[in-house]
Design brief:
Structural class: mainly alpha
Shape: rod-shaped
Order of helices and strands: HHHHHHHH
Largest sheet: none
Number of strands: 0
Number of domains: 2
Strand content: under 5%
Length: 260
């Protein structure tokens, strides 16, 4: 009989737990103790794969940090640049409307994405604005850093997906499953040659439970979904706050006109 299946969504922690259990049960039974070497070899392979997985997760985390840093730098540039336009031409000028369709606060709300693409167009516009030309090179550097951060994040995520679907983790899982099935078959052979061992002898060397969904992966997915929800809520709140300010300013302007 094959060993009880471990599904591909099982976490590495759950897989190690299963392997350690089998190793300990094999060593405790002199009839099959020699088969523990196969499981111990798989545990050694597990350590390599676990380090690789941590390296991929660290790469994603670092890339996310760089994306955040790039976004903060562009956000810090935005009000400074807006003040330069105010000083050079004013908020009601054609120059202002060329760069800002919404308030600077609203403009800086997204995390890169549309904001990054809009600021990329600013570089082209700045080439034709002599009074603002000094901002062109600093902005180009910030955009280049943002592009590198986005690229690093994309590559880190894709590398982790490849590692899990067809790379190191997938290969380890296939090899581990084959090893466990081989150990189960060997134990079956030992039991078949014995007149005293029970018919369900092989099952005692494997966990009876099957991990259907990794607890770690559940937690990671929940954390990611919550982070996305919070980010969306913050962005929506920022937009609403900016809209409220604009609405209030327009109301004050109308009131001021009426009093004249």
């Amino acid at each position: 009989m094959p060993a009880p299946a471990l599904v591909s969504t099982s976490s590495l922690t759950a897989i190690r737990d299963d392997l350690v259990f089998t190793d300990a049960r094999l060593l405790a039974d002199p009839n099959v103790a020699s088969h523990a070497k196969s499981i111990q070899g798989t545990l050694t392979d597990w350590e390599v794969v676990q380090r690789e997985q941590f390296a991929h997760w660290d790469a994603i985390t670092k890339a996310e940090a760089l994306v955040g840093a790039a976004d903060d730098n562009l956000d810090d540039f935005t009000p400074m640049f807006a003040n330069s336009i105010r000083s050079a031409a004013g908020e009601k000028s054609a120059t202002w409307n060329l760069f800002f369709k919404v308030t600077p606060y609203e403009f800086a709300a997204p995390v890169l994405g549309n904001q990054l693409e809009a600021m990329r167009r600013w570089v082209q516009l700045l080439a034709k604005q002599s009074e603002l030309a000094a901002h062109k090179k600093p902005l180009e550097k910030l955009i280049a850093a943002a592009d590198l951060a986005v690229k690093a994040r994309t590559e880190a995520v894709l590398a982790n997906e490849q590692f899990r679907s067809t790379g190191g983790l997938a290969k380890f899982f296939a090899k581990m499953s084959k090893t466990r099935d081989g150990v189960a078959a060997s134990i079956d052979t030992v039991a078949a040659k014995s007149t005293t061992l029970p018919r369900n002898y092989t099952s005692r060397f494997f966990r009876s439970r099957t991990v259907k969904v990794s607890v770690e992966e559940k937690a990671q997915k929940a954390a990611k979904k919550e982070a996305e929800r919070q980010a969306k809520a913050r962005a929506e709140a920022a937009v609403k706050a900016a809209q409220a300010k604009v609405k209030a300013a327009m109301a004050e302007l109308k009131a001021a006109k009426k009093t004249k």
